[in-house]
Design goal:
5-stranded mixed β-sheet, alpha/beta, 6-stranded parallel β-sheet
Length: 391
Amino acid sequence: MAFILKKPFKNSKGILVLKNPEHMFFREANPLFRNVLIELSEKYVIGLHWCSYQENVKDFPYIDFHLSDGTVTFHKDESPRIIPFDCKHFISPTFRKTNLKKDWDIFNMSRPGNGKYLDEFLKVIRLIFDERDNVKVLLICPDILHSWNSRGIYTNLIPDYNRMFSIEEKKRFKIIIPKLVDHSLFPFTQEMITYFINTSKICTLFSKEEGQSRILHESLLCGLPIVARKDLRGGGLNYLNEKNSRLFSTLQEAKSIFLDLIDNPENCQFDPEELRKVLGEEYNKNKFVEALRSLFKELNLEFEGSLDLEDLSNKLPSHIRTLPSEWTGGIQDQLSNSKFFYLFMHFLLNKDLSKTNYLLFQVFYYCSKISLFTKRVYRKIKKTYRTKSLS
């Protein structure tokens, strides 16, 4: 989503923040597209919020700054402007420790993407259940198994769950699959998520790569110790230490860590309020404004006008829907292709789009699509031919 953090005010540019998958639009070869991008950059300072882990990235034209705290590494020849904030630095005061009864020993809240490695999570729970008959597990997984294209989705989650666990064991291992309402990525309110966290003893993710991994840091602010992979790349390991987390390298080690934390919770005690000073929105809003003020000073720009600082934990990663659903092509508020970004730029600039320009843009757009498709087909044919020649 193109989030307007600050509207243009008098002689001061606005601030436009895009989600990192939308960076591809800035490499668009279409000359009509470039012309509008130039106009947009004259009115806005443009930033990218990095929601997923990327490495060896080259900087992009028209991008003035990047919001990232360990979620991206740039090519050695690049010197981008990085502001070390992302959505996990604006966690709501709602997430705090309570005295609720602990109903669950292990809590995992993940999308069913293959990159979340829920198949391995199930294997570890199976190992635990083979050894103990009193451990309780809660997995919350949004119902996108059939809402999205199945590519990249762990569609065997429920079949594997049914195959690996008996009816009796399922009483101790619950999977909640909330329905998505109005294509929202988050069917639960912050209060509901806080409840699930505070009725659990341990929070875990099995991912090998994470962007901000906000659920881990929300759980930290509720006083839960974290169990994660030792080689987790991205921002997931940020602010984890020996007092508030345990890291594993193998599934067998993960099993042992869970059982040790369940038996000896006193071995992982920490003060969540100390972390709130780093992760809480009430502490970071002013710091963020000062970082933006410094950015404008570096760019020799005036810094005036009000900023939209409410609910940044959801607005920065496009978790609040504001765009027409036909523009997004998914459950997140993310522009699906350059055609819709072209329309959106005209909206931001309050500029009418002539039928001639739109027709020309469509011609460029579909020609580039055909060119890309042709290149892919050629590479596939070439690869097939090479394989046959070797055999």
